[in-house]
Design goal:
single chain; 692 residues; alpha+beta; Jelly Rolls; five-stranded mixed sheet; five-stranded antiparallel sheet; 15 strands; 50% helix; elongated; membrane; transmembrane helix; DUF7024 domain-containing protein
Length: 692
Amino acid sequence: MRLLQRYTPRLSNSALFLIALLAVFLYFTLRNIGLYPTVFGDEWSYSSFTRLMPFRDTQVPSYLFYTVYRLTNFCGDGYLECARLINAVFFVGAAPFIYLIARQYMTRQMAIVIAVLAILTPSNTYTGYFMPEAMYFWGFWVFSWSVLRGLGRVDVRSVMLSSAVLGLLAMVKVHALFLIPGYVVYLAYATFAQRGASGNWRWLRQALLLVAVALATAAVVRLAVGYLYAGRNGLYLLGTIYSNQAQARPALGVLIRLALVSLQGHLMALVLMFGMPLAAAALQCASRKQRHGAARGSSTLLAYAALMIPSLVAVTALFTALVAGGGNESGVRLHMRYYDFALPLLLILAGAQLVTQRPGVAWRGRLAVALPLLAAMWAASRYLIPGYTPNHIDSPTLFGMVHDGGSYQALIGFSVAAVLLWVASTRLAARWFVYIVIPVTLIISGDNVNLYARIAQRPDAYVKAGLFAHQYLTQEEAKRLTIVGNDMANLFKSRFFVDNVDVSLLLLAPGQPITLASLAHPNGWLLVVGDYPLPEGAVRHSGFREYTLARVKPPAEARLHRFAETEDDSMRSTGLSFMEDWGRWSEGGQVALTFAQPLPKQLLLRLDVAAYGPNTGMDFEVTIGGQTVPLRADGSHGVKELRFSTDGTARAITIKIPKPTSPQELGFGGDQRKLGIGLYSMETIDAAAPRP
């Protein structure tokens, strides 16, 4: 053992930190590989805005996010996997900034532990989505570092730096605007805290100056850069999507009631997850003695956390009330992803409890704070579930905790034990919380969330349909595609894989007929997921059990047949090779086309054809109802017209090939098919009918 210790190099803290971050990055990458998208229509919106649209036309002004993630266009059809790699880089990249903040209040080892735990929270599942959450997580911690560096001291230069970061962060995700109220109040507090011993009101003038500098800097950066990206459209702070949501206001009484219901759910979740650091924060806020005994500079950390997290929670509750009041979703849905990026601040506060300068409040004072908190934890354990509905997207950590009832109760017990230990010893409670409660919670919750996320490894019918249409249709054809199904979220999923912004969606009840009048493109394409009667004249290009791709042909176009399309019941053929993206080659000495309905007596046959090899310039014999007309085709395709007079009962067209020849015979590879004529399209026209 001594020999092993002697010759094994001791790794520095920096090396251990780097190894841990690389391991976490590898974990994110391997977990996310092969997952199909699940968050619709957010993932579709951000993917299409990023990759398929100019900046000025995007409905959300996340221009910096679009700039970085537009690199995924270099990945072809693998753009989603590339976006996930970039997500993982940003999420792991936040850890050094969390470490730099935490290091001001605790030892290097503890700061490393806090930083690694912060990126291992189940909210790291956001790295699997084509959404700005991962980049925003990184940006928030860059902003927080710019605010809290130097133990949170503020001056004009530091405020200009942090405000510029905030202005840029608003172009990653517009929700950065919700950081402004807490940030402005923090600047006033920090100015007051560093006012010195004079005790006069000069600090207020300085605070007003710093607030003005902050708002002006953030506004100039946001508006100037936004204008450079999108012109006048870049000056809109929220974009059209969020502006429309903000305008949908329910009655004031309904709004207040729904907001309070949502706020209650968020508070119950927070006291269950972070009881001990919340108790420590409450006591430090209430007691000057406790603040003086805390780690040096931790009062500014406490002020920042106490301003940022509650303001974000309040805005989230108000947003939920606005959306729920408009009837778009349930008011008991907990959108914790709108503030969970800031929750590692509570981890840092917990770790700071291990560093004390002098004794703080005695155990009786801590007990006075702990008792109401324990009562709140008891109430939350009873009423949070099933009163609220956390899910793996909006509130992944809480979802993972409650997914298994037995584990949920055990985790609550661990959290309660941390509060009870805090009454006896703040240092012991901090160790219990950081080294036991948080890791156990992350393991159990993260495993449950990962199991749920891995369900997305299996493609459903909507995924399969979208993938098939993306590969089968050209981009021009996809512009005239309508996707039909009975679930709007899943229709977004199919459109995500078709990957075209012009695709239309049609929501129909199962079995309801599809009419031409309901289609945005009555002469386009249909991707039907489920069992629906197709419009008359539609030509199936796939007829699988779960979905159907069809070409829509209105009655006026029914006489036109494109040979690149699957044959329908109106015509059957022999003597043709397989379909290609342009049409079909003849194979052998004769082509026979048999129609379900008789051909017109006075027939104008319009063919778009090309001759192969030695057949160029030779006569093909086209026979209908006993009448034969020669057809001479060129080497490149062109339209030829032939006229026939029949008795009105003819149903077949035959084309005799003068010299069937294989590419192999001409020295062009190993293709042994005997080719003669290439058929692009055919139109059967009644020449006796009045022309429009």
